[in-house]
Design goal:
The strands form 2 sheets. A two-stranded antiparallel ribbon has the order 1-2. It has a two-stranded antiparallel ribbon with strand order 3-4. It contains 2 helices and 4 strands, in the order ββαββα.
């Protein structure tokens, strides 16, 4: 992805330029991998719950909604740290 910049003197004449290229390959590969895993989790019939290192539930999938009987935003405060 190019980011060209033109340098001009006080009169506005072009005196130079700079173009920075950024390789996004690693970022695109990571995005594809994340999307792949998200699709697996969302399409699973099994209950899958993600928690942070602090033990607080961050998300769960449709399988968990079916097992627990409600959507994650409707869970009780006691369920936040299961």
């Amino acid at each position: 992805m190019p980011y060209p910049t033109v340098f001009r003197d006080a009169r506005g004449a072009i005196t130079g330029g700079l173009n920075i290229l950024i390789d996004l390959t690693d970022r695109l590969n990571a995005d594809r991998t994340n999307a792949h895993f998200a699709a697996i989790v969302e399409s699973s019939d099994d209950a899958i719950i993600s928690k942070g290192l602090d033990g607080v539930i961050r998300s769960w999938n449709k399988g968990a909604e079916r097992v627990f009987g409600y959507r994650p935003e409707k869970r009780s405060a006691s369920m936040s740290r299961c």
